[in-house]
Amino acid sequence: MSAPAEAAALKRTPLFSLHRELGAKLIDFGGWEMPVQYSGILEEHRAVRERAGLFDVSHMGELEVRGPGAAAALQRLTPNDVSRLSDGRCHYSAFLTDQGTFVDDLLVYRRSGEDFLLVVNASNRPKDFAWARSRIGGTAEVTDVSDAWALLALQGPLAGSILARAAGEDPTDLAYYAFRTMKVEGFPALVSRTGYTGEDGFELYLAPEAAEPVMRALLDLGRSEGLLPCGLGARDTLRLEAKMALYGNDIDDTVTPWEADLGWIVKMEKGDFIGRDALAEQKAAGVSRKLAGFEMVDRGIARHGYPAAAPHGAGIVTSGTHSPTLKKPIGLALLPVADTAVGTEFETDIRGRAARARVAPTPFYKRKKEAP
Amino acid sequence: MNPDELHYTQSHEWVRIDGDIGTIGITDHAQKELGEIVYLELPEVGHVYNADEEFGTVESVKAVSELFIPISGEIVEINRSAVAEPGIVNDDPLGDGWLIKLKVTTDDEVRKLMSAEQYAEYVQAEEKEK
Asked: Which residue from A299, A304, B51, B130 lies 20 to 30 Å from A79 (Cα-Cα)?
């Protein structure tokens, strides 16, 4: 085991001192000193699947796009169809390069027809802002407002009832991917029914000074029901079970949405957008590789960056971990398209040892929808 | 926390000597640093190692760590319960969570390992560097 890198220059969220108080184990995550776990990744993972978990994800970046041309600008900047969003709705989308590969993946919130909020990955924030500013055109303006927002994710089957008590109103009337402002513990919050765990849940955008009182209140309100503070370790195992892509692991500026199995965020029929021509070309030619889920046949955990050898050629493991829910190793790999059918076996290279894996149905975990 | 009868390495393994049999595991400090252990890779019985060679890996959800053999010898037993339920290593790293037993080649090497007191000082110094 090696010592972690020098921590002096790391950025901290408004919740840093509370994390320390709660006994979090802190790590360098893309330049931020963030909790990787509090009580333990497996326990925190289970809390979110069975009860509820609370994550500080204030390191995420927020960009505001405003002006009379905001909707038109985003229609060009992102591949999903912004015209389908009404006020109070958000959707998953991306910034793409001219080659159709990912600059970043992101959420687009429509506050009004001239006022949008984009939520981007922490490590991509400067790149995204520079990219958006250079490509946005004249009738809209993009502003990096990341420092004005703290972000909490309350996730799990009990998230709605816990939040209802803190908000004094019922947030569960929000549809999935809808949002509105409400007061939580007296603080104004933009609350959306979104998350990165595969569970029901909410994300709360707060002023930095509201983050600590709101996190304390939610932890107090949920404690008797088993709500736990959760770190980025559990966030990663939860998102991987739900087959949600992670920028820097599964997607980056060498991978297109077609290859990432994220074609559903690309609306070719909506008109022109950055990356469209390249994506049309790749679609016509056919993609040669695609992201697929796998489980291990042999013992071992094939992790990010480990080589894969499939019947039709080489591939690479983009994410791999022990699944706390399934209690076995799972992962995602970019494989030759001919080798992505469920059941196809391929070989991974686990630090020099060959270990067989098998393409598996995804998502690895899907929550049971409750009867209305 | 670190029993006096054990011998310790800088890579956080421990050895207990019973006659010519050495039992090897990872320290309580090591299991805490790793977090919840979900996977163990251990060698076959009969394999012969020289001191400081890698003999396996221990993995938590987030990280992989190599295991280094503190003294030379031939593997005579591996802890199959720990392979099946790696959480034992977190629960009882110095007892039921042992990893391998080996037939010790020489008595000399164990004398070069750290005592409990030296290991405690070593961990403290390592922590300060963080």
From this structure: A304
CA of A236: which chain B residue's CA is closest? B62
Q: How many helices (DSSP H) and strands (DSSP E) are in chain A?
A: 8, 19
First and final CA of chain A: distance in angstroms? 50
Count of C-beta atoms within a 10 Å radius of residue A271: 12
pLDDT of residue A7: 46
Answer whether A322 sits within 8 Å of B30, measured CB to CB.
no
Q: Are strands B37-41 and A32-37 parallel, antiparallel or unpaired?
A: unpaired
Shortest distance, CA B19 to any CA of chain A (angstroms): 30
Query: Which chain A residues have a beta carbon less than 8 Å from that of B39?
Result: 299-301, 322, 329
Range of the domain at B63: 7-125
Token duo for residue A102: 């990912």
Task: Report the domain count for chain B.
Answer: 1
List of domains in chain A? 16-58+149-241 (3.30.1360.120), 61-146 (3.30.70.1400), 263-359 (2.40.30.110)
Residues 39-98 of B with CB under 8 A from A: 39, 41, 57, 59-62, 64-65
Q: What is the pLDDT of residue A8?
A: 57
Distance between CA atoms of residues A226 and A51, nearest Å: 6
CB contacts, 8 Å: B60 with chain A: 41
Q: Which of B28, B61, B68 to mutate to test the interface with A (most CBs of A within 10 A)?
A: B61
* Residue B2 in domain: no
How much is the pLDDT for A353? 93
The verdict on residue B49 lying in a domain is yes
**10-residue stretch averages of pLDDT, chain B, 130 residues long:** 90 96 97 94 96 95 94 98 96 97 93 95 88
